[in-house]
C-alpha cells in the first residue's frame, strides 16, 4: 500500500499576530496559552499523518478540536498557515489557483454535514455539478450523474429538488455528487451526523458496500466512536488541534494513548451496551457468482489471511473457503469455487446481539463470527481482538 | 471659540469640483446622448402602441406573471386604473413617467448589480460603499438636481440621472445582502468541486440571491417613481409635471388626479415585478 494523502507539519492559526503564535507553538506552548498571550486561535497544530490508498481514515475529537479545519486544509478550502500536503506525492502547497482547481476537480470530492445541496438545482444537476464546472457536455454528465445516483440507490428522483427529499436521501445525493467525478479521495466532514440513527446506520452500510467496489481513499470525520469503529480502517484522535493517537480501532480500544482517548472510549460504552454491530469489521469476501478460485486466492494473499468468506451476487452469505483448498482447486484447473465452500465451522450471529452474549464462544471458535442480517446478507465479521478491546474499555467504567 | 473663527469653505470646494467637472463636456454629452437614446426608444414604442392594446398587454403580462397566484382582483384593478388614466387625459404623461422609471431602473440595475457583487466579494469595498449608499439615499433628492442640471442641462436625461442616484442604493444593497446570505457550506461545496469564481457567481451565488436581489430592484423602481415630481422641476416630462403645474396654479383637483395616476402606476409596477419574482423562484 502506498500513501495517497500525506500531511506534514500542517498548522492553522486563526486571527492576528500569527508569526508570534507560530513561534510560541514551536516553543511547545498549548492552545490555551497561545490564545491568552496573542489572541490567536490554534485550529490545528503541526499535524503529521498519512492516509493509505483505499483506506477509510476516521478523524475523531471533541468539538473545537480542529477536525473540520484539518479536513478543509487538505483541499485548501482553508489555507494552511504552515506545513505540507501531498496527494499522490504531488505537493498541493506549491500549486497556483489553476493547479489547485484542477486537483479539486479531478482528485478530491467533499461531502458535507448538512448536505450542502444547491436548492436551485435538480438532483441530477446537483450530482452533475462537478462535471459541469469542468465543462463536460450535458449528455455525458447527465448520464454519469444518473449512474452515480443509481450507485447510491436513488432511483427516480433525478428531476426533483433537494427540499423534496428526506435527510437520508439528500445525503445519498451528496455522496453521489462526490462519486460522480471519479475523484479518488473523498473528504467527509461529519457526513452522517445530521441523520437519525437508522439512516446513519444505513449510510454507513452503504458506504462500506460502495467502498468494497470502488476502493476510494476516504477521510471521514466523526463524533461517534461506534461509527468510527464500524467504518474506520484507522482512527485518528485529536484534541485542541493536536493529534493524540492514530491507530487501528483495536489499537485505540486496547491501548488508549492517554486519559483523553480513554474518556472518549468510555463515553461510548457508558451510553450503550456494545452490540455486534458496534464491533464487527468489514470481511474480505469473494463473490461465488462472479469470482473464481484465482481471485479468491489473490485476495487472501493480498490481505494476509488464510481463509475467506464467500457471498453470492447479493452479498448473501454462502460459506467460507480455506486457502489450501482453493490452491488445490487451481491445481486441478477447476474454475468453480462451490466445491470447497464450507458452512460448517462458521459461527453465525446477528448485528444486534449484545457482544457479551458471545464472549465465551468468541474465545473458543477458530474462525471469526459471521454477522448476518435478516436477509442473510453478510454485513460483517467479528474478530477476537476487536471484541476484547471493546470489552476491556467497557470494564474501565464499571 | 476657535471652531467658529473661520467657516470651512466646503460649499466652495464642491462648487469648484462641479465647475471643474463641467469642462468634460464631451464626456457628459456622450452620456446625455446615450441615455437620451434609451428614453426616446421607450417613448417611441409607447407612442406607437394604441391605448387599448397597451392595456391588453399589461393585463396579459400580469396574467402570465402571476401564474397560479390570485390574479383577478389585480387584473380588475389594472383595467379600471388604466381606463381612468386614459379617461382623465393623462395617458401620454403616464407613458412618459413610465419611460423615466423604466430607464432609471434599468440603469440602476446595470450599475447597481455589478456594484453589489463587488461589494459582496470584498469586505473593504463593502466598508467603503455602505456610507456612500447611506449618503446617496438620505441626501435630500433636490440636491441632485443642481449638479444634474450643471452636467446634463434640463430635460429627461438629468431627471433620469437624479432618479438613478436616488433609486440605486436598494439594488446595490440587496445584491450584496443576497450574495452574502448564501449559506457558507454551499460556497464551500462550489469551491471544493473546483468552480472558478465566475462559475460560482453564475451557478450558485446569483441564482440563490435572486429573490433578495429582485426585492431590491422592486424597491429601486418604487424610489425612482417617487422622484418623478422632483425630476419634473428640471424638465422631465410626465405625471410629475402635472402635479408640479397644479401646485403652481394652486389647483388641488388636478394635483390629486395626477397624484392618483402615479399611485395607480406604482401599484401596477410593484405587483408585476413582485409576481415576476415569485413566479421565478420555483421553476
Ligand atoms: N474561521 C475561523 N476563525 C477563527 N477561529 C476558527 C475559525 N474556524 C475554526 N476556528 C477555531 O479553530 C478551532 C477548531 O475548529 P474546527 O471547526 O476545526 O473544530 P471541529 O473539530 O471541526 O469542531 P466540531 O466538532 O464542532 O465541528 C476552534 O477553536 C475554532 O474556534
Ligand atoms: Mg467540524
From TrEMBL, chain A:
| Biological process, per Gene Ontology | amino acid transport; glycine betaine transport; response to osmotic stress
Output one GO MF annotation: ATP binding
What EC number(s) does this enzyme carry? Answer: 7.6.2.9
> What Pfam family is a match, any one?
ABC_tran
Q: Where in the cell is it found?
A: Cell inner membrane
Would the keyword Protein biosynthesis turn up in this protein's UniProt record? no
Any one GO CC term of this protein is: plasma membrane
Q: Which residues form the CBS domain?
A: 279-337, 341-398
Give residue ranges for domain ABC transporter.
5-265
InterPro entries (alphabetical): AAA+_ATPase, ABC_osmolyte_uptake_ATP-bind, ABC_transporter-like_ATP-bd, ABC_transporter-like_CS, CBS_dom, CBS_dom_sf, Gly-betaine_transp_ATP-bd, P-loop_NTPase
Q: Which SMART domains match?
A: AAA (SM00382), CBS (SM00116)
User: Which UniProt keywords are given for this protein, alphabetically ordered?
Assistant: Amino-acid transport, ATP-binding, CBS domain, Cell inner membrane, Cell membrane, Membrane, Nucleotide-binding, Transport
Reactions catalysed, semicolon-separated, are:
a quaternary ammonium(out) + ATP + H2O = a quaternary ammonium(in) + ADP + phosphate + H(+)
Q: How does it sit in the membrane?
A: Peripheral membrane protein
**Which PANTHER family is this protein grouped with?**
GLYCINE BETAINE/PROLINE BETAINE TRANSPORT SYSTEM ATP-BINDING PROTEIN PROV, GLYCINE BETAINE_PROLINE BETAINE TRANSPORT SYSTEM ATP-BINDING PROTEIN PROV
**Family statement:** Belongs to the ABC transporter superfamily.
Q: Which NCBIfam families match?
A: proV
Tell me how this protein assembles. The complex is probably composed of two ATP-binding proteins, two transmembrane proteins and a solute-binding protein.
Q: What is this protein called?
A: Quaternary amine transport ATP-binding protein
TrEMBL record, chain B:
Signal peptide (UniProt feature, chain positions): none
Residues covered by the ABC transmembrane type-1 domain: 94-273
Write out the entry's keywords from A to Z: Cell membrane, Membrane, Transmembrane, Transmembrane helix, Transport
Q: What's a Gene Ontology MF term here?
A: amine transmembrane transporter activity
| Protein localization | Cell membrane; Membrane
Per the record, the GO terms for biological process are: choline transport; glycine betaine transport
What is the membrane topology here? Multi-pass membrane protein
Transmembrane stretches, start-end:
20-42, 49-66, 72-91, 98-121, 141-167, 223-246, 252-269
Main location (coarse class): membrane
GO CC annotations on file: ATP-binding cassette (ABC) transporter complex
Q: Does the keyword Transcription apply?
A: no
Q: Which PROSITE patterns match?
A: ABC_TM1
Q: Which PANTHER family does its entry note? A: GLYCINE BETAINE/PROLINE BETAINE TRANSPORT SYSTEM PERMEASE PROTEIN PROW (PTHR47737), GLYCINE BETAINE_PROLINE BETAINE TRANSPORT SYSTEM PERMEASE PROTEIN PROW (PTHR47737:SF1)
Family to which this protein belongs: Belongs to the binding-protein-dependent transport system permease family.
What's the protein here called? Glycine betaine carnitine ABC superfamily ATP binding cassette transporter
Species per Swiss-Prot/TrEMBL record:
Secundilactobacillus kimchicus JCM 15530
Amino acid at each position: 500500500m502506498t500513501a495517497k494523502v500525506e500531511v506534514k507539519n500542517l498548522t492553522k492559526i486563526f486571527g492576528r499576530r500569527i508569526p508570534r503564535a507560530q513561534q510560541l507553538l514551536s516553543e511547545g506552548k498549548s492552545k490555551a496559552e497561545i490564545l491568552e498571550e496573542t489572541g490567536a486561535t490554534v485550529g490545528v497544530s503541526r499535524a503529521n499523518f498519512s492516509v493509505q490508498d483505499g483506506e477509510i481514515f476516521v478523524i475523531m475529537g471533541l468539538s473545537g478540536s480542529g477536525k473540520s479545519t484539518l479536513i478543509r486544509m487538505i483541499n485548501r478550502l482553508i489555507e494552511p498557515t504552515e506545513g505540507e500536503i501531498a496527494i499522490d506525492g504531488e505537493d498541493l502547497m506549491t500549486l497556483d489557483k489553476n493547479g489547485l482547481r484542477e486537483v479539486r476537480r479531478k482528485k478530491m470530492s467533499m461531502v458535507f454535514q448538512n448536505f450542502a445541496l444547491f436548492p436551485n438545482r435538480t438532483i441530477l444537476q446537483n450530482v452533475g455539478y462537478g462535471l459541469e464546472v469542468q465543462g463536460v457536455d450535458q449528455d455525458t454528465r447527465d448520464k454519469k450523474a444518473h449512474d452515480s445516483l443509481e450507485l447510491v440507490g436513488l432511483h427516480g428522483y433525478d428531476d426533483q429538488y433537494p427540499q423534496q427529499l428526506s435527510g437520508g436521501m439528500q445525503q445519498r445525493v451528496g455522496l453521489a455528487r462526490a462519486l460522480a467525478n471519479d475523484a479518488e479521495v473523498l473528504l467527509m466532514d461529519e457526513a452522517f451526523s445530521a441523520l437519525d440513527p437508522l439512516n446513519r446506520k444505513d449510510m454507513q452500510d452503504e458506504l462500506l458496500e460502495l467502498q468494497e467496489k470502488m476502493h476510494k481513499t476516504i477521510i471521514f470525520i466523526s463524533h461517534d466512536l461506534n461509527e468510527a469503529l464500524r467504518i474506520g480502517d484507522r482512527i485518528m484522535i485529536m484534541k485542541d488541534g493536536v493529534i493524540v493517537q492514530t491507530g487501528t480501532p483495536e489499537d485505540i480500544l486496547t491501548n488508549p494513548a492517554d486519559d483523553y482517548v480513554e474518556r472518549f472510549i468510555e463515553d461510548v460504552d457508558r451510553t450503550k451496551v456494545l452490540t455486534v454491530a458496534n464491533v464487527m469489521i468489514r470481511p474480505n469476501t469473494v463473490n461465488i457468482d462472479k469470482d473464481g478460485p484465482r481471485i479468491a486466492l489473490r485476495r487472501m494473499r493480498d490481505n494476509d489471511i488464510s481463509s475467506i468468506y464467500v457471498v453470492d451476487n447479493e452479498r448473501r452469505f454462502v460459506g467460507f473457503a480455506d486457502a489450501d483448498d482453493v490452491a488445490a482447486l487451481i491445481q486441478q484447473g477447476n474454475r468453480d469455487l462451490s466445491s470447497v465452500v464450507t458452512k460448517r465451522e462458521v459461527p453465525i450471529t446477528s448485528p444486534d446481539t449484545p457482544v457479551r452474549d458471545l464472549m465465551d464462544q468468541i474465545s473458543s471458535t477458530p474462525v471469526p463470527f459471521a454477522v448476518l442480517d435478516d436477509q442473510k446478507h453478510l454485513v460483517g465479521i467479528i474478530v477476537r481482538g476487536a471484541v476484547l478491546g471493546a470489552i476491556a474499555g467497557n470494564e474501565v467504567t464499571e | 471659540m476657535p471652531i467658529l473663527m473661520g467657516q470651512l469653505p466646503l460649499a466652495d470646494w464642491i462648487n469648484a469640483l462641479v465647475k471643474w467637472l463641467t469642462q468634460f463636456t464631451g464626456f457628459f454629452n456622450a452620456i446625455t446622448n446615450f441615455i437620451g437614446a434609451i428614453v426616446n426608444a421607450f417613448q417611441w414604442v409607447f407612442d406607437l402602441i394604441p391605448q387599448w392594446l397597451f392595456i391588453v398587454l399589461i393585463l396579459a403580462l400580469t396574467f402570465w406573471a402571476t401564474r397560479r397566484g390570485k390574479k383577478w382582483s389585480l387584473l380588475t384593478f389594472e383595467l379600471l386604473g388604466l381606463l381612468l388614466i386614459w379617461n382623465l387625459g393623462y395617458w401620454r404623461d403616464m407613458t412618459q413617467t413610465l419611460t423615466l422609471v423604466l430607464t432609471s431602473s434599468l440603469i440602476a440595475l446595470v450599475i447597481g448589480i455589478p456594484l453589489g457583487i463587488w461589494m459582496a466579494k470584498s469586505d473593504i469595498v463593502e466598508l467603503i460603499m455602505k456610507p456612500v449608499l447611506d449618503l446617496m439615499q438620505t441626501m435630500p433628492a433636490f440636491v441632485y438636481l443642481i449638479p444634474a442640471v450643471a452636467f446634463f442641462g434640463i430635460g429627461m436625461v438629468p431627471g433620469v440621472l437624479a432618479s438613478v442616484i436616488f433609486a440605486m442604493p436598494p439594488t446595490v444593497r440587496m445584491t450584496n445582502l443576497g450574495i452574502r446570505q448564501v449559506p457558507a457550506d454551499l460556497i464551500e461545496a462550489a469551491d471544493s468541486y473546483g468552480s472558478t469564481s465566475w462559475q460560482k457567481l453564475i451557478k450558485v451565488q446569483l441564482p440563490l440571491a435572486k429573490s433578495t436581489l429582485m426585492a431590491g430592484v422592486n424597491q429601486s423602481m418604487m424610489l425612482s417613481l417617487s422622484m418623478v415630481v422632483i425630476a419634473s422641476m428640471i424638465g422631465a416630462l410626465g405625471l410629475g409635471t402635472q402635479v408640479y403645474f397644479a401646485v403652481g396654479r394652486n389647483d388641488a383637483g388636478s394635483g390629486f388626479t395626477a397624484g392618483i395616476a402615479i399611485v395607480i402606476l406604482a401599484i401596477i409596477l410593484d405587483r408585476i415585478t413582485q409576481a415576476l419574482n415569485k413566479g421565478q423562484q420555483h421553476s
